Amino acid sequence: MSFLTLEPIRLLLYLVGVCAFVGANAAYLVLAERKGAGRIQRRPGPNEAGYAGLLQPVADGIKLLAKQIMVPPGTDALLFRAAPLMVMAPSLMCLAVIPFGANLVARDLNIGLLLVFSFGSINVMALMLGGWASRNKFAIISSARVVSQNVAYEIPMLLVVITMLMVTGTMNLNEIIHQQAGWFWNWNVFKVWVNPLMPVTFVIFFICMLAETNRAPFDMAEAESELVAGAFTEYGGMGFGVFFMAEYANIVVGCCLATILFLGGWQSPFGALSGVLGPLWFLLKMYALIFTVIWIRWTFPRTQFYSLLNLSWKILIPLSLFTLVLTGVMIKII
Amino acid sequence: MSLSTAIRDVAGGFKSLLVGMRITLGQAIKPSITVQYPHQTLKMPARFRGHVKLVLDPETGKSRCTACGLCVKACPSDCIELDGIKREGEKKKSVTEYELDFTKCSLCGSCVDVCPSDAIEYSKDYNVVSLNREDFSHMDLVKRLEAEAEIWRKHHPPQAAAVATTPVTAPAALATGAKTPSPGQKAP
Ligand code: SF4
Ligand code: SF4
Fold it and tell me: Which B-chain residues 59-88 have CB contacts (< 8 A) with chain A?
């Protein structure tokens, strides 16, 4: 065991583990997404490759890998190549501080929450660079949208996070989970005695997460019907594949964060068994959230761009500001 | 807009989203309704118009066509060519050659309507594809009927056919027209 506790070995194991986790998730969430879409539309979804379509991600992967990565003339070749990496790397980094179980965390940083959000914001820049470097009008329109959308939704999201920081008093993600021990009414989302609007806060966080990851109904960045493929228009082969995987990796990170901040992370819903079965509870909650993300995508049509901004500036920001103030007052009184 | 109406608007909008999500979830747990096409096929509806084909008489296993030539005259596009002979011991002529030019046929149905002995009908064959134009410009309907009669004879041994006076039910091959071999496609 001493060999496994050596720091470099431990980090290497975590690196491989996180990469594998993100890779497997990105690949199979695409399948889950298509299966989910199929179910909601009363059809079976991909079911030809392998048993019930389970080999579909492998087939897609091989197809993408076998394609040449074209760098169209006139593009900024360096930025064009760097953008997919820049969009993928931060989500990998974020997973380093996510605690999957009581002891299952690569780096137990005391500013974990801050790290996730600072790396999370690189995602926007990478998408913008990708669109800019493509020298394509659709890609540039998409980039502009990504920036204004992410700026708009970063504000309510961070306001919610500040609220949560006031409630928990720490940025250490594992510490936040420890505070939610016991029965499920100790989870932050149900702590109505701290702030009666806690469930609303959770919903705001969830909506912002959808918008930050450019998911439907907020997928203005790659609105196929008007922008071809948005910022990814000029990308092909694995360049496109990495963007695509990064989208799902970001969803995983976002859902992990929502689980940790609001749903008690690896805590079991009834106070017992959260030590050994911790990772199981964590994954269960996370995948339930991811399922909701998929479910939302196949329920609602894409919003218009101005109503997307209206939602943020006119509803979410005032609401999250209000919960922030309310929490402050409640904390002061209690 | 007062604050209370704004709050009511937001709450009402949010509730409508939840209603939408309940509907999609409700659909998601119902069985899927698609037909997995190459593996499963639908039976063609009764009024489906495939190319014209000769009817196999389920009692005799032969065509009912008497080579009267009315369909040839009725066809506005001049698609049909046929020939027939009078066999020994039979009252009427029987068809020996029936060639349809499906490239010109407009599926108008005049030939089917005019036929006095109900000898032709629309097939239920939709898997018609070929790399060879001849397969459609000279469709040999007698040969196709022969393929069907082959199947018919398997279900009707000669001795049974000889004594058969009671009506025999149509063999399965007739009911599912799509099963007959079509040009460019191997019979399953
Ligand atoms: S369907 Fe009309 S066009 Fe076709 S063969 Fe019959 S009569 Fe001619
Ligand atoms: S198919 Fe009918 S109309 Fe045409 S020749 Fe035969 S019996 Fe006459």
Answer: none
